[in-house]
């Protein structure tokens, strides 16, 4: 199946010299997945709402200062599975579609999910959701929320009360929408002072509540149906019959990632933000993760996901990079996270942590087996 029928020639387009304030209003009024940027009519890149939130650049600045030109380019007849992988590895919800070397349109993650919608009932949420969740407390300030979104390269933060129960959700769209409305109300005065007051606002005053959740035993089809119904990009995953307890997060990106799983003999390793690889290759990453998984031969690795995120801090020109590794196995999820200057250093720190967690899982499994043997022996007495 290719994307010829799901890509669209309709998209929002701005020039590189357009003001960022104008772009913000596009996101506020039309809520696109991304906006195509052109330079004198020629494709230049895309801009997303997350970029605007993370940029901290004044509205009078021009689009060219933050345009993203490393988004993968897609052919109009490319295979759906290949395009899903491109979106995940490019860490984008929209990609430009080219035909005969010319920009033809765009393809979005929503279009892909709609195309495979009827096939999603073969998957359950617990098979593909992300267990690691970054959360906020109700009295945390908006400034902390923005820092968390930037630091972890994510787009949503569940909010908990003092008892640790789920009470709300804050997303990049909520914050961008609030910032636009606040700035539009300003007619005079100290804008920087107004911004400081915005950052001091408790997230309780901004969060969406109640939160739409999905039980871990639900089908992915049911989850996507809920996402489309409410125009959400992700849902909080809860244990069955416990709607205020967080088990994880399920996003549209998680579902796209599942569409790319392969049955190849070699481990399927997917890399998000693959453009950050500098002195390390995809094969180096695959080999290192395979070596770790082989230390526990009873553990069957179904899929591995490696995500790189670049921070603004640099050392002699090399950016500080965060690496997150997640292996989905028949024993559950195992993860490792690390930071370092450059993708290779960050990856090796993360893979060391992953190895420790795998060996810990091996020890826990051995303890459980020993405990079971003891109980059986006691039962025989």
Task: Report on the architecture of this protein.
The chain is built from 12 helices and 16 strands. It has 381 residues and is α/β, with parallel strands linked by helices. The chain has 3 domains: 13-107, CBS-domain (Roll); 122-255, CBS-domain (Roll), CATH 3.10.580.10; 261-371, Double Stranded RNA Binding Domain (2-Layer Sandwich), CATH 3.30.160.100. The strands form 5 sheets. Strands 13-14-15-16 form a 4-stranded mixed sheet. Strands 1-2-3 form a 3-stranded mixed sheet. α2 crosses α7. The longest helix has 38 residues, at 343-380. 34% of the residues are buried.
Which helices and strands, and how do they pair?
Layout lengths: L12 E3 L4 H11 L4 E5 L2 E6 L1 H7 L18 E2 L4 H10 L4 E6 L2 E7 H7 L9 H4 L7 E2 L4 H11 L3 E5 L5 E6 H13 L6 H9 L13 E3 L4 H11 L3 E5 L9 E4 H8 L9 E4 L9 H12 L7 E15 L2 E12 L2 E10 L1 H38 L1
Parallel strand pairs: 1-2, 4-5, 7-8, 10-11, 13-14
Antiparallel strand pairs: 2-3, 5-6, 8-9, 11-12, 14-15, 15-16
Helix pairs in contact: 2-7, 3-10, 4-10, 11-12
List key phrases describing it.
3 domains, 37% helix, single chain, 12 helices, CBS-domain, alpha/beta, 381 residues, Double Stranded RNA Binding Domain, globular, 25% strand, three-stranded mixed β-sheet, four-stranded mixed β-sheet
Largest sheet: 4 strands, mixed
Gross morphology: globular
Oligomeric category: single chain
The tally of helices reads 12
The CATH H-level homologous superfamily of the largest domain: CBS-domain
Taken in chain order, the helices and strands follow as EHEEHEHEEHHEHEEHHEHEEHEHEEEH
- Count of domains: 3
What fraction of the residues are assigned to beta strands by DSSP?
15-25%
Placed side by side, the strands forming the largest sheet appear as 13-14-15-16
> What is the CATH architecture assignment of the largest domain?
Roll
The percentage helix is 25-40%
